[in-house]
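Revision sheet: structure tokens.
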Amino acid sequence: MPKFSSPNLDFAQLLLDIESAFGIYITVHDELGQLRGRENRNPLPGRHLHPHPYCRYLRDKREGELLCTRNCVTRINDIFDSGTNRSECVESCWKGITEVVVTIRQDGLRLLTLFAGTFRRDGVPCPLEQDATAQQYYDALPVLTDSKRHQITRLLYALGFALLAFLDQELKAEIPPSSSSRKRQIWQFIWQNAHRPKCDLKELARELHLSVSRTGHAVVEECGEKFLVLLNRERIQRAKRLLLTSDLKLEQIAERTGFSSICYFSRVFKQFEKVAPGQYRRQSWQKIPNC
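Predicted:
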């Protein structure tokens, strides 16, 4: 069997190429804050916001922002977290925008949600028909056909799984090749389980086939810090990404990053970042220009 090398893809450029080829806009919601490249950089900056001009229209106003959040976060979460294990849908928002939506799961857990559009439904008038600008945007939208929906759904699945493979590749690249296999096991365990509240030293000990005491010493020997410090640092890095790239409430971010309560989340966040999570979000958003 020939050996294939995995190219170091520029996913930001790849999305632009796909959008140009298919005449669509793509949005990616990182559900657990795991999406990162080397040196902890976001490989898809700005992709958590829907980029179509009609999506941006009215979004920056408070009422529009709330309605967009209610549809693209709250409603989508309700659809995919309803216990039905549903993984795709077609959704229309309060502006009449229709998008194909796909969620990517691993071990039943939702990791990514991808949106592609923007379309309108055939024969359905613009909900904002009293707004001339909105009507103009809406009339210019293509109609979503069944064949186009199936095509885009397949594309989003392929893109989502490619992003997961990219994550795995970037994780491996963060650990120097000279690192011991045990150190790699420790980091792999933290990466795969940080979102779980019950992720602890006992579970890692079972993974390494060592006693809990010996595992604690091994973590310090291999990684230079205690297990809980490493675990919380990873959780806080994920929480920071969710604070910057989502409209999730602090309680939701705490839950998605493995913290047992918002109080514990806030306390640990402040230990690492010297500010409370809400303040971190406000200060960071003030530095980002409106999209």
